[in-house]
Design goal:
Layout: H1 2-10, H2 15-42, H3 51-72, H4 76-89
Length: about 100
């Protein structure tokens, strides 16, 4: 979340910082994509979605959930966002 806030604040006023933060988010997204591709190869990815698009979804849910959790001073929004991602991926429900 701190990087998301920083990116939001700097994206319109500091192009160099925006690019540097973009590189960081791109790396996170690549790592999510690689994990999702590995899941797809093993047949563990229930959805037929493209791993690249799913990686973007995971990152967006994480960042959005963190922002709402901070604003509401509750982990419930983050939990809901991550539960939604797990459901999309076909992961077993958590207890």
């Amino acid at each position: 979340m701190p990087l998301g806030s920083l990116a939001s604040e700097l994206s319109d006023i500091d192009d160099r910082a925006r690019r540097a933060l973009g590189v960081t988010f791109d790396e996170w997204e690549r790592r999510f994509r690689r994990g999702l591709e590995a899941m797809a190869r093993r047949g563990a990815l229930a959805t037929g979605g493209a791993p690249g698009r799913l990686a973007t979804t995971v990152l967006a849910a994480l960042e959005g959930g963190l922002l709402l959790a901070q604003l509401r001073r509750s982990t419930a929004p983050l939990e809901a966002a991550l539960d939604g991602v797990l459901e999309l991926l076909g992961a077993p429900e958590r207890p």
